[in-house]
Amino acid sequence: MTAPLYSRIEETLLDRIRRDYRAGQLLPTQKELAAEFGTSLITVKRALDEIARKGYLRSTRGRGTVVVRPVVPDDRRGLSSWTDSMTGLGRQPRTASCEISTRIPPPEVARALGMKARERSVVVRRLRTLDGDPLCLMRNELPLALAPSLPREGLTEESLYGWLKRRCALAPHRADEEVEARRPLPAEVRALGPETRIVMVVRRHTWLEDGRPLELAEMTAPAHRYRYRVEIMRAP
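Above: the chain's sequence. Below: its structure in token form.
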């Protein structure tokens, strides 16, 4: 069954916005879009309304239709992977790039991971996208002894936690997190987009159920696009 015309226009424009437009740029007028697609203003308006509902457009009096980037809510009520959190929102998380290496970590990292001197760790660096847009940089470091085949097998679209459960029968049991806001590094601006002025950095230290450290993780995302919410309950 053929999709309605407004839906096809929406899909075309949304792909164009993600690929060719930066936040703050103006779309052509509704009249210009109607002429381009050979349809009515009503059909174009419905397509634009659907895109605005998804958070990619905002109508501004005196300016027109402005491209924006939607704020991504990350509501944490338990210990889960970023992939699972985003999938639970009905979004499409992907891995744009992935680098895996090993190293002998500095003493403070080795202590945090419960490693002996000269033991090697594995470091996973990824650029993650959401619905096609670059959203965050991730860095995970864990003892190589816990996941010896990870450098060889690599990660594609599977989450690190999913891979650890499937290949190593390991699952995170508890974690400490801290959140920091700071100015981005030049490499972060190149990866996350030129409109990135402040980044939010979430650092996580994770342990297994038996008390062994599992990983040190760091997620860096544009602060204007990411909302991190944690549910807090009063201690008994």
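The mean pLDDT is 89.
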